[in-house]
Amino acid sequence: MSWLDRLITVQFGWRDAVDVLVVAVIIYNILALIRGTRAMQISIGLMLLGSTFFIARAFDLPALEAISREILFYLPFAVIILFQAEIRRALARMGTNPLIAFFRRREPRIPVDAIAKACEILSANQIGALIAIEGAQTLRAYEETAKPLDALATTELLVSIFTPGGPLHDGAIILRGNRIAAAGAFLPLTTSENPGLAHGTRHRAAIGLSEESDALVIVISEENGSIATASEGVLTEHVDVTALRQMMA
What is the mean pLDDT of the segment spanning 226-238? Predict the structure, then answer.
């Protein structure tokens, strides 16, 4: 039976449609997760490396087939090692599923006015700051090495924390709802290779956390007082207070 005859006799039911749809959604989300990152280039290289086995078998190249067979055996381990950051991020995002999030306790709304006013004051006085606003994914792992506060987020408290000379002004604060959960937190630095990223530790930490979670991170430069935000691994610079309010809303 030729391939055309097999294609004609294929019976495609609703289960097959669901199967194809689920696989398509999984592949789409994987590609969206690694799009524009170094992981995309690594993925292309791994696919080319894995395809050598089928090429060797098609052209009857026994030596290359034997080598590529060994490569295919260790390829899954290489994927786990090379893509551990992306795998960790994907697993964390599973917690944002609406069915799972429905059972989570709803946090109070973030105090947009208090944060915006504090950022305006800090920016005008060129005081460096790093504010991580927790989203659907928890940031409790970064509170372990920070100073717990559990205080209501007000403009005065936010400004006082980042005022130079204080014990907590060098770290980041973590906002959960309308409360400051912790201060003096150390955030993960981005590992992405971006030659045009001419920023200091605060900006790299903001990008790093936004790559690991769905948090909105606000950065204020102590060099020029400019406000920047990081979300989903993307840094947006020279943000004014009005735009900042819209991002937090």
Answer: 91
